[in-house]
Queue: 2 jobs
Job 1
Amino acid sequence: MPSPPPSNRPPMPPPQISIIGAGIAALTLGRSLARHSIPYTIFERDSAETARRRHRYGITLEPQAYRPLLDYLDLDAKAFRDRLAVDGGVGGTGYQGGNTASSPASAMQAFRANRQKLEALLSQDLHVRYEHVLSSLARSGDTTTLTFANGQEVKANLVIAADGVHSSVRNLLSMKAELKTLPYAVYRGKRLIKAAEDAAQAYQLLFHAVQKEGGIVLQHRQGQTLLQIQIDDLTAEQADVTYTYSRPGGREPQDPLFKPSRSKSDARETPTALFDEVAQLSSLPDIFAEVFDAEKMRKDRLLNWLMRSLPPPTEAEMTRAVQENGVVLLGDSAHAMPILGSYGANAAIEDAVALGECIADEELKGGEDW
Ligand SMILES: Cc1cc2nc3c(=O)[nH]c(=O)nc-3n(C[C@H](O)[C@H](O)[C@H](O)COP(=O)(O)OP(=O)(O)OC[C@H]3O[C@@H](n4cnc5c(N)ncnc54)[C@H](O)[C@@H]3O)c2cc1C
């Protein structure tokens, strides 16, 4: 069969793709583009060291979201889980409720993954330029000029805003970002419980809960107060845990624990009323009594969490962002949900997988629409 006549048109150069942020959405998109050999650069605000150390906590990964990551990473479900499960350090699977006989090793199930490990795995060999805080963007023709706080300027045809719930890109484009706050008072603490020190008993209780009962996330309710203990990383030496104290907030006009309009820096200010309320909790099960001990909590790193959600921009706003600025929003910068019970990481992965496929399809067609 004769081969088709060669096209006279020169091939379109690949688009210059700049991704702002190196969180879960950006790293997933980077992996997808790398797999399709499409060039891109990720610009991250934090230093490489900060990025490596942050996000030491567990998130629930759902199979429909993480399935494509297995291809991107060339791993099977078991190997993926072994690398990331919060109790992987003691041979666990990250399954809430434990590894039952109905859960073959190869099964794709929701599991608790350590977010720090997930980002480390996704970021391997990707082009990430750290310490690049986006400060402005301007479009001229089909090129957007990005300016970073370190003075660097970068030109891009396509800009992906994957810079999280407080997205600078969204702000720079003056897109509405009305965060809605649910009426809950939520305080989160982090603690490292060592197996060998005076916390040995607490470690044993946690170890037992995880190993025997698959209790990766433990909950206890007292009245309207919900106490949660989550395993972030469990090894034979220590248990890294996050715990949260939450209850409806703002019912009393002077509720000292509910501060919906506090500044970001005030999140670290813990009212003494929290310790008073915790001290009044009675007859807590052993491990809750250990963790929710007001005196121990005073020494922990505590944060006030606001249960905020960010509705997505309208279709008209998104179309304008693409047509006038060459910008696509991804993950939390487009839509965010409250932290407790969030599906945000999964949504960020799903967004990034869909966008990566879309860009790859466009490339296959010759990039005529770039
Ligand atoms: C404690 C906690 C527990 C959670 N648990 C779950 C869970 O169980 N399940 C779940 O699905 N989701 C969970 N989530 C939510 C989930 O983590 C987020 O929805 C998800 O990380 C969103 O990903 P993203 O890539 O869109 O944004 P992010 O992960 O927030 O990434 C944004 C990135 O952009 C960078 N950046 C910001 N501004 C700039 C700038 N101007 N220039 C350059 N870079 C910038 C940031 O440093 C960051 O790296 C949890 C979140 C928290 C905090």
Note: The first strand starts at residue 17 and ends at 20.
Job 2
Amino acid sequence: MQARIPIAVAAASAALAVAPAAAGAAVTHTVQPGETLSGIAAANGLTTDALAAWNGVASDHLVIAGASLSVPTPEEAGLGTTATGTAATGAATTAPGTAPAPWLGSIPSPWGDLYLDAGAAAAWSSMRQASLATYGVDLYPAGPLSAYRTSGQQGEMYELYLSGAGAPANPPGYSSHELGVSVDLATPAMRDIVDQIGWQYGWGKFEAPEEWWHVSWGGG
Ligand SMILES: [Zn+2]
């Protein structure tokens, strides 16, 4: 009997960079060359299983360029409405995280664990639970560099800004993201919630008035 090589599984597991679908409701995604079910799922904050189930295909289904997939929001797919749901999403898309520095704590995001100052992370987690319980809205950073940044990452963002390709960014050594006390929120709805309940957790809008997405922790 010929040995069966799990090519489909290997291909489906290779995560590629895929642009996230617009937030709000399920959208139709046209598969691009090189994309995989797991890559599309990860880019949209979904587990591969959830995206597969939503489309009625197996988790190791090989997507074909040009085919259409329906991409639900994590909430529609039954993910992200509870702490365990989002934690499962993070676990599926990243290896177990190790904090870049011992004074950091982790917070869940669609891109896996991100980091903040340990006090800021604990306060964020409490605020996030309250948001989920009260509003049914998850709170998470807009991208992998939207919470704690190393000075190297800040430097790269500053260079991008200077080149005209990136959003405004402070030079390394001058961003509260390097202190792990700021988050760039993913949606204006999240900002509304931080405005309403953040003060109870030390989170609020304390700096960068021209950036609605940038909120900070004022200390515990
Ligand atoms: Zn920011």
Note: DSSP finds seven helices and seven strands in the chain.
